[in-house]
TrEMBL record:
PROSITE patterns: WD_REPEATS_1, WD_REPEATS_2, WD_REPEATS_REGION. Residues 388-407, 490-511 are annotated as: Disordered. One of its GO terms (molecular function) is phosphoric ester hydrolase activity. This is Phosphoesterase. Belongs to the bacterial phospholipase C family. Residues 495-511 have a biased composition (Low complexity). Pfam families: Phosphoesterase, WD40. PANTHER family: NON-SPECIFIC PHOSPHOLIPASE C4-RELATED, PHOSPHOESTERASE, ALKALINE PHOSPHATASE-LIKE, ALPHA_BETA_ALPHA. Keywords: Hydrolase, Repeat, WD repeat. Signal peptide: none annotated. GO terms for biological process: phospholipid catabolic process. It comes from Artemisia annua (Sweet wormwood). WD repeats lie at residues 612-646, 653-694, 695-736, 737-778, 779-821, 822-863.
C-alpha cells in the first residue's frame, strides 16, 4: 500500500538527552521508558563512598555547556576516562555522567542529572500526547554535534569524530539524501534561519542547489500556506543567540523556551497548510549534550557505514551508537499517544538512530538505493503512520511556553564548538580560508555577536557570488568557494582573521583604509554633534531671548493649521497611489502608485514633469532627498531606486529578501534607509549603492522608518506592534517602545529632537518622550488604521495623521488635541507629506487622487523662525 506521506519535514535540535528533555513524560504516559527519580550516579565511579546524585525534575535555564566530546561521552557511558588504547569492548554502564560533569565545573553534576517537568515543556507535552514519541532513538556516534548531523542527511560522518578542518574546507564529499531525493524525481528544500549547516556537504554548495535554500522567516509560512512545500524539508534554526534575537536550537546556554516557540511555530504553519494530510514532521536532537540518560547505548551488531576508521588518537570504528536522544513524530496519520520502542528490523540488532531518516525517506519515496551500510541497517518509522484515514482532531495551535532565562543573552560569551565550526564554514564560503592560515585560535576568541555577524555576512557574500556565477553562465556543478573559483573570479572580503594577526602592510596604511560602514558611522557621529549643538542653541534662544515670543509663534502656527483647505485635487495614476513627498524647496511633488511608476509634478500647479519607470512590481513609497532634487522609490520588487527629476535612473539598491515597505533619507542626504517584509531595515550609501547597515530586531516585517533631525538616531516600526530607536553610530537598538496592540505603520521624529510619534492598526497615535523613555499621549485618532504620520518639518508645531478612514487630521503638538480634519478622499488615505514651510499638506489615496491642502492665512510677517 502506498504511503499517504508526501512531505517529510525534519527539525534537528541541539544537545539534550532523552531523559533530560522527555524522561518525566513517563508521568503522562507510563509506556514511555523514562525516569522516576530513582536513577543515580556516584560522583566517583571508583569510590563507592562518594556522594550519590539522584535524577531530579528541577531542570531549568542551563549555563554552562556540559561536556560532550568523544572523550567526555566515553567517560559518561563507561564510567572510565578515555585513554589511548582504551578498551572498545566494554559494556555501557551509563554511570559516568556526574563524575565527568564535576570535572568540567563543580556543581555541574546536579545539572546533568536533572530533567524537565512536562509542564515546563508544554509544546512537547502536547505533541507527545497527541502524536508519537520514540523512546529508543540514539545519536549515530558517541561524540559531539557535527558528525551526528552529517549522519542525519548522509548516514555517515565520512570518518569524522570531531571537527575536521580539511573536510570542512573542501566540504564533506559523501552522497546525501538530498541528492537521492532529487534523483528519484522528488523535490527538497532547506529553510534556514542562518546559517544553513547543511552547507558542510560539498555537493550542496553547487550552483544547481542554491535555489533549494530558503530563508525561513520569508518563505516557510508562505510555502506552507500556498501548499508549496517540497517533498523533503529540512528546517534549520538560529544557532547564535544575541539580544532581542535569541538562539532557538536548545543548545546551552540558549533558553529551551525559545526552542519550544520555534517548534510551535513550525508545527502551526504545517497544521494550517493544505498539505497537512500528507505531512510527517520529525523533531529530534543531534546528540545528548552531556546530559544523563539511563538507557545503555547499543554496541553490538552495528555496521561501520563505509569502511572508514576515525583519525588518531581515537581510531573509532563507528561500531557503537551514541546516547539516547528525544524524537517526536507528528502526522494526522498517527494515533494519539503512540510510543515507538525498538524497531522490528530490518536486522535483529537494528535501532532507531539518525540514519533512520534517510532509510525512511528511501522507503516512503521508493528511492533506488541506500546511502551506506548504516541506513541499510537502521530501523525505519514509516509504520508510525498507521491509520487508514487522517485525523481531523489534531490541535491547530500549541500552548505558549514560559521563558526560563531571566537575563538577556551574553553577547560577549565565547562561541560553542559548533558555533566555531559554523564560523569556520563562513570563512570557507566567503574565501577567507584561502588568504590566511585557517583561523582556529581567532575563532576560539570570538564572541557570539562577532561570530553571528561574521557568519551572516559570509553567507550573504556566498549567495551574491552564486548569483554572479549564474549570470556568468557557470555550470550547475560549479562551486564558488572551491579551488576552481580562483581569486580572480571572486571578490574576497577583507579577512576577519587579520583582526589579530600580523601584517606586512604598514600600520599607517592599514589605518587609512577604513571600511565604508565604519566611515559612515564616524561621519554620522561627527556631523550629529554639530547638528545637535545648533538645534539645542536655537531651543535655548527661543526659550530665553526676551525678543522671542514662543507662545505667540505656536499659536500663530496652529491658527494657520486651522485654515488648511483643499486647494487642488488631481488624478495621479490609473491605480491606487501609495506614496508622496515634497522636494526640499517645495517646487516639486513626487508620487508613486501600484503601477510601479513614480511621477514628478511641478508645484503649485500640480503638472506632470516626468515619470520614473523601472520597477517591475508595485511601488510602495517615494521620497525626495533633503539636500537635492534626487528621488528614491521603494518597490515590492525588493529594490529601491534613485532618480533625478528628469526621470533618469541614478542607482539601484539591492539586498532585501522580500518586498520593501517605506524608505527615508538621512538628514544629510548621503544615506538612504529602507524597510522590508524580510524583517530588516537597511542603510545605503546613496552614491555608491553600498549597504552600510543591516538591522535586525523586529520579529515581523519592518514597515516605517524615520531619522532623528540630528542624524544620530533612526526609528523603525513594524508589524510586531513595536517601535525601535537605533543608534546609527553603533548600529544597535537602544530603545524598544511597547504600547501599540497591533502593527505600527507610521513613525515620525519631531524637529524638537525628543518627541516621537507612532501610529498603526489599533487606530491610535502615540507620542513618546525619548528623554523619559515612555509614552506621553495615546490619541484615539481615527476610525480605521493610521497609515502614516508626519510632524511639520520646521518646528514640529503640529502633527498630521492619515488613515484608511479616508481622512487626514492635524493635531497640536502642544497638547496633541485636534486642530483640523481634512476630508475629501473617497478611499483609504495611504501617504502624507508637509512642505518645508508648513504652509501646505499633500495626501494621496487609493481613490487615485492627489489632494493639496493649503493654508489660507497669508500673514507672512509671522512666518516661523527659520534660522
Amino acid at each position: 500500500m502506498a504511503s499517504p506521506i508526501k512531505t517529510i519535514v525534519i527539525l534537528v535540535q541541539e544537545n539534550r538527552s532523552f531523559d533530560h528533555m522527555l524522561g518525566y513524560m513517563k508521568s503522562i504516559n507510563p509506556e514511555i521508558d523514562g525516569v522516576t527519580g530513582k536513577e543515580s550516579n556516584l560522583l566517583s565511579t571508583t569510590n563507592h563512598e562518594s556522594q550519590r546524585l539522584f535524577h531530579t525534575n528541577k531542570a531549568g535555564f542551563i549555563q554552562p555547556d556540559p561536556g560532550h566530546s568523544f572523550e567526555a561521552t566515553y567517560e559518561q557511558i563507561f564510567g572510565k576516562e578515555w585513554s589511548e588504547g582504551a578498551a572498545s569492548d566494554l559494556v555501557p554502564t551509563m554511570d559516568g555522567f556526574a563524575q565527568q560533569a564535576e570535572k568540567v565545573q563543580p556543581g555541574l553534576s546536579e545539572v546533568v542529572m536533572s530533567g524537565f517537568e512536562p509542564d515546563s515543556l508544554p509544546v512537547y507535552k502536547e505533541l507527545i500526547s497527541e502524536f508519537a514519541v520514540c523512546d529508543r532513538w540514539f545519536s549515530s556516534i558517541p561524540t559531539l554535534t557535527q558528525p551526528n548531523r552529517l549522519y542525519v542527511h548522509s548516514a555517515t560522518s565520512y570518518g569524522a569524530t570531531t571537527n575536521d578542518n580539511k573536510s570542512m574546507i573542501e566540504g564533506y564529499p559523501q552522497k546525501t539524501i538530498f541528492e537521492s531525493v532529487e534523483e528519484g524525481g522528488h523535490s527538497f528544500g532547506i529553510y534556514y534561519q542562518l546559517p544553513p549547516s547543511t552547507l558542510f556537504f560539498r555537493n550542496l554548495r553547487k550552483l544547481k542547489y542554491i535555489d533549494n535554500f530558503h530563508q525561513f522567516d520569508l518563505h516557510f509560512k508562505r510555502h506552507c500556506k500556498e501548499g508549496k512545500l517540497p517533498n523533503y524539508v529540512v528546517v534549520e534554526q538560529r544557532y547564535f543567540g544575541i539580544k532581542n534575537i535569541p538562539g532557538n536550537d536548545d543548545h546551552p546556554s540558549h533558553d529551551v523556551s525559545d526552542g519550544q516557540k520555534f517548534v510551535k511555530e513550525v508545527y502551526e504553519a504545517l497544521r494550517s497548510s493544505p498539505q497537512w494530510n500528507e505531512i510527517l514532521f520529525v523533531v529530534l536532537y543531534d546528540e545528548h549534550g552531556g546530559f544523563y540518560d539511563h538507557v545503555p547505548t547499543p554496541h553490538v551488531g552495528i555496521p561501520n557505514p563505509d569502511g572508514l576508521v576515525g583519525p588518531p588518537p581515537y581510531n573509532f570504528n563507528f561500531d557503537r551508537l551514541g546516547v539516547r536522544v528525544p524524537a517526536i513524530l507528528v502526522s494526522p496519520w498517527i494515533e494519539r499517544g503512540t510510543v515507538l520502542h525498538k524497531p522490528a528490523g530490518p536486522y535483529p540488532t537494528s535501532e532507531f538512530e539518525h540514519s533512520s531518516i534517510p532509510a525512511t525517506v528511501k522507503k516512503i519515496f521508493g528511492l533506488k538505493s541506500h546511502l551506506t551500510k548504516r541506513d541499510e541497517w537502521a530501523g525505519t518509522f514509516e509504520g508510525v503512520a498507521s491509520r487508514t484515514t487522517p485525523r481531523t482532531d489534531c490541535p491547530v495551535t500549541l500552548p505558549d511556553p514560559k521563558k526560563m532565562r531571566e537575563t538577556e543573552p551574553d553577547e560577549n560569551e565565547k562561541l560553542s564548538e559548533f558555533q566555531q565550526e559554523l564560523v569556520q564554514l563562513g570563512a570557507v564560503l566567503n574565501g577567507d580560508n584561502k588568504k590566511d592560515t585557517f583561523p582556529d585560535k581567532l575563532v576560539e576568541n570570538m564572541t557570539v555577536t562577532e561570530g553571528a555577524t561574521y557568519v551572516e555576512s559570509a553567507f550573504k557574500k556566498f549567495c551574491d557570488d552564486c548569483d554572479q556565477a549564474k549570470r556568468d553562465g557557470k555550470d550547475g556543478s560549479y562551486i564558488v568557494c572551491s579551488e576552481e573559483a580562483t581569486p580572480s573570479t571572486r571578490k574576497l572580503p577583507k579577512s576577519f582573521s587579520q583582526k589579530g594577526s600580523s601584517s606586512s602592510t604598514p600600520l599607517s596604511t592599514r589605518l587609512t583604509t577604513v571600511p565604508p560602514p565604519l566611515q559612515a558611522r564616524y561621519w554620522i557621529a561627527k556631523e550629529s554633534v554639530l547638528k545637535a549643538a545648533v538645534r539645542l542653541g536655537r531651543a535655548r534662544r527661543k526659550r530665553d531671548d526676551p525678543d522671542e515670543d514662543l507662545d505667540a509663534e505656536i499659536n500663530w502656527a496652529l491658527e494657520n493649521a486651522k485654515s488648511f483647505d483643499m486647494d487642488c485635487s488631481e488624478i495621479g495614476d490609473d491605480r491606487p497611489l501609495s506614496g508622496c513627498s515634497f522636494s526640499a524647496d517645495g517646487k516639486f511633488l513626487a508620487t508613486c502608485s501600484l503601477t510601479g511608476v513614480g511621477k514628478i509634478w511641478s508645484m503649485p500647479e500640480v503638472k506632470i514633469v516626468s515619470s520614473l519607470k523601472g520597477h517591475t512590481e508595485r511601488a510602495t513609497d517615494i521620497t525626495f532627498s533633503p539636500t537635492n532634487n534626487h528621488i528614491a522609490t521603494a518597490s515590492a520588487d525588493r529594490t529601491a531606486r534613485l532618480w533625478n527629476t528628469e526621470g533618469t535612473l541614478l542607482n539601484t539598491y539591492k539586498g532585501h529578501l522580500d518586498r520593501l515597505a517605506r524608505l527615508a533619507f538621512h538628514p544629510s542626504g548621503k544615506y538612504l534607509g529602507t524597510t522590508s517584509f524580510d524583517k530588516t531595515w537597511r542603510l545605503w550609501d546613496t552614491e555608491t549603492g553600498e549597504e552600510l547597515l543591516y538591522q535586525e530586531g523586529h520579529s515581523r516585517s519592518v514597515y516605517g522608518l524615520d531619522f532623528h533631525p540630528d542624524g544620530s538616531l533612526a526609528a523603525s516600526c513594524g508589524l510586531d506592534a513595536l517601535a525601535r530607536v537605533w543608534d546609527l553610530r553603533s548600529g544597535r537598538s537602544i530603545l524598544a517602545l511597547e504600547g501599540h496592540v497591533k502593527p505600527v505603520l507610521g513613525i515620525s521624529f519631531s524637529p524638537n529632537g525628543y518627541h516621537l510619534a507612532t501610529g498603526g492598526e489599533d487606530n491610535t497615535c502615540r507620542i513618546w518622550d525619548l528623554r523619559k523613555k515612555r509614552s506621553l499621549y495615546t490619541i484615539p485618532a481615527h476610525a480605521n488604521l493610521i497609515s502614516q504620520i508626519k510632524f511639520e518639518p520646521q518646528e514640529g508645531y503640529f502633527l498630521v495623521t492619515v488613515s484608511y478612514d479616508m481622512t487626514a487630521k492635524v493635531w497640536s503638538a502642544r497638547d496633541f488635541k485636534p486642530v483640523k480634519v481634512l476630508s475629501g478622499h473617497e478611499s483609504k488615505v495611504t501617504s502624507v507629506d508637509v512642505v518645508a514651510d508648513g504652509q501646505s499638506i499633500v495626501t494621496v489615496s487609493h481613490d487615485r487622487t492627489i489632494k493639496l491642502w493649503s493654508s489660507k492665512n497669508v500673514d507672512k510677517e509671522k512666518d516661523m523662525d527659520v534660522d
